[in-house]
Amino acid sequence: MTRIYAFANQKGGVGKTTTAVNLGAYLAASGQRVLVVDVDPQANATSSLGLAKNNLSLSSYDALINQVPCDQVVVPTKWQYLELLPSAPPLAGAEVEMVSLLAREHLLRKALSSISERYHYILIDSPPSLGLLTVNALTAADGVIIPVQCEYLALEGLAELLRTIMLVRDNLNPRLYVRGLLMTMYDGRTRLSSQVVAEVQRHFKDRVFRTIIPRSIRLSEAPSYGEPILAYDPDSSGALAYQAFCQELLKGDAEM
Amino acid sequence: MTRIYAFANQKGGVGKTTTAVNLGAYLAASGQRVLVVDVDPQANATSSLGLAKNNLSLSSYDALINQVPCDQVVVPTKWQYLELLPSAPPLAGAEVEMVSLLAREHLLRKALSSISERYHYILIDSPPSLGLLTVNALTAADGVIIPVQCEYLALEGLAELLRTIMLVRDNLNPRLYVRGLLMTMYDGRTRLSSQVVAEVQRHFKDRVFRTIIPRSIRLSEAPSYGEPILAYDPDSSGALAYQAFCQELLKGDAEM
Ligand SMILES: Nc1ncnc2c1ncn2[C@@H]1O[C@H](COP(=O)(O)OP(=O)(O)OP(=O)(O)O)[C@@H](O)[C@H]1O
Ligand SMILES: Nc1ncnc2c1ncn2[C@@H]1O[C@H](COP(=O)(O)OP(=O)(O)OP(=O)(O)O)[C@@H](O)[C@H]1O
Ligand SMILES: [Mg+2]
Ligand SMILES: [Mg+2]
User: Fold this and answer.
1) How far is Cα B26 from Cα B122, in angstroms, rounded to an integer?
2) pLDDT of residue A93 exceeding 90
3) Per-residue confidence at B256, pLDDT binned at 50, 70, 90?
4) How far off is chain A from B154, nearest CA to CA, in Å?
5) Contacts 24+ apart (CB under 8 A), B99-104
6) Tens of pLDDT along B90-115?
7) Which residues on B lie below 8 Å from A11 (Cβ)?
8) In sequence order, what are the residues at sequence separation of 6 or more whose Cβ sits closer than 8 angstroms to the Cβ of residue A54?
9) Is the pLDDT of residue A96 over 90?
10) Neighbours of B152 (CB within 10 A)
11) Using one digit for the tens of pLDDT, what is the confidence trace for A116-167?
12) CB atoms < 10 A from the CB of A236, how many?
């Protein structure tokens, strides 16, 4: 049974890419076959896994707009069981091109349907907006994982995001649900972080993952080496937190 | 003479809103009449200046889509010489609605033209994307200020952003130029920050502002009180850096 999770939050810089990439790496390390799907034109998930977006002949753009079968676009990474549907610069124009296509919100779901049984997990990294690329990610997904940065401004957009998720569930994808909210970049030295965590836990109760990802400079260094934290610095606080998150997710999925 | 600056970078969470709001506050404190324009559906600039996005009857959505004259939409803030063209949730649907409108890229420029002489500075905060709202901001602006977070992933998107700026200059707004790149969230404890600064200075030379904004928790606390840093904690490292940035910008503008 394949589980497809979208990582979505229109607030920028909250840890969508970092979570998709590192969760993917830990899931693969525990024997799960994983596909990371990058539908962000910035292609940060692609470069975080060591691939150069400008050297790719095919990308998620081709799977979405030119109906190229996914198995021709997917590339391996250096890590066993971890594959990638890469992004590339042409994706920047995709949203405007998609507006007039038939069933434009279903393009990604259809593209992934031909390969999804090969994987235990498909993790979709989306851009910081609620446009057609993110709507495609939400329509293709079973569940949404929402990274929430432990900052005040990150709280402001949650209502908007949940409204969009409900709209997609009611009109495009009835199985979509919120798999959980993951608190990220927690800075124990500040009162602000614990206030934001308390606020989110008050509102969303048990839909907030117990694991909290701390702010850890090693996490932001890893992408410059094209490696997940598991490979770059497995003993860092960021690595241990994503490992714990992976265990929490696997345990919760097993109980469903 | 009115100077219109857009704050743009499709990478999320790099300090676009924080820079537009705090530069605006220091410019106003030095006697310049300032309008902050919020064309991000997240409305973070609006809430950072103490206004509640859900209580507003008119917003930038109305100025763009319903041609409501700007002087009916602009609201005062608590600070003298600092006014706001607020954002509100309807703006989230604007990009799709704009696709089929005539001269869709010029909507903001036209809206602002009726009020611009009243201000010395107009600062436009844009969303983390290169869609129609950001293109409108770039078409309305004289110059672009690019906040660049001192992180590896923030480097990746600069080439794409500069390509888009050139496209807008060549097709929509011939006066558009890069006013400068502002390094933000510099963390002196890490090697990564100084490496990123060195890399950006190597590529962009004197287009990089000399002022570097440090990572300062007080900057991320201020929005929860609806205040710029000038009002919240004027002696903090973040406040002093934005004050210095304001001086550097004024001095540079005076010499042009
Ligand atoms: N826990 C963490 N500690 C420190 N730095 C982090 C952490 N998580 C992410 N980062 C860094 O913060 C920045 C933002 O994270 P990331 O790019 O994953 O967010 P995002 O939500 O995907 O951004 P965007 O909205 O642009 O897609 C990156 O430079 C990343 O390396
Ligand atoms: N120099 C700084 N030091 C510490 N925190 C900062 C600094 N600048 C901004 N922040 C905080 O970092 C987060 C991201 O900043 P901000 O929201 O201004 O970025 P943005 O580019 O406008 O984001 P978006 O892409 O979502 O519009 C916010 O929570 C903000 O309060
Ligand atoms: Mg990302
Ligand atoms: Mg912003």
Assistant:
1) 13
2) no
3) confident
4) 9
5) B99/A96, B99/A99, B99/B132, B101/B65, B104/B132, B104/B136
6) 998 898 889 889 999 999 999 999 99
7) 12-13, 42
8) A88, A89
9) no
10) 20
11) 999 999 999 999 999 999 999 999 999 999 999 999 999 988 999 999 999 9
12) 18
Ligand 2 and B15: CB distance under 6 A: yes
CB-CB under 8 Å, A192 with B220: yes
Residues of chain A with C-beta less than 8 angstroms from the C-beta of B96: 99
Residue B72 three-state SS:
helix
CB nearest A156 (choices: B42, B92, B95): B42
- Smallest CA–CA separation between A16 and chain B, in Å? 10
Q: From the list B17, B92, B153, which residue is nearest A44 (CB)? A: B153
Helices (H), B141-255: 152-156, 158-171, 191-204, 217-221, 229-232, 237-255
- Provide DSSP, A155-184: HHTHHHHHHHHHHHHHHT-TT-EEEEEEEE
Ligand 1, atom 10, lies closest to the CA of A220
CB A112, CB A140: distance < 8 Å:
yes
Sign of CA dihedral A65, A71, A73, A76: positive
Dist. CA B169–CA B162, nearest whole Å: 10
Residue type, A1: M
pLDDT one-digit tens code per residue, A25-76? 999 999 999 999 999 999 999 999 999 988 899 999 999 999 999 999 999 9
Q: What residue's CA is closest to ligand 1, atom 15? A: A15
Under DSSP, is residue B137 helix (H, G, I), strand (E, B) or coil? Answer: helix
| DSSP E strands, A39-176 | 75-76, 82-85, 121-125, 143-149
Retrieve residue B79's tokens: 């600070």
Contacts of A139 (CB under 8 A, 6+ apart): A105, A106, A108, A109, A168, A172, A173, A176
Cβ contacts of A92 on chain B, cutoff 8 Å: 130, 160
Residue A256 has pLDDT above 90, yes or no: no
Q: Is the pLDDT of residue B137 over 90?
A: yes
- How close A239 comes to chain B (CA, Å)? 18
Percent of chain B with pLDDT over 70: 100
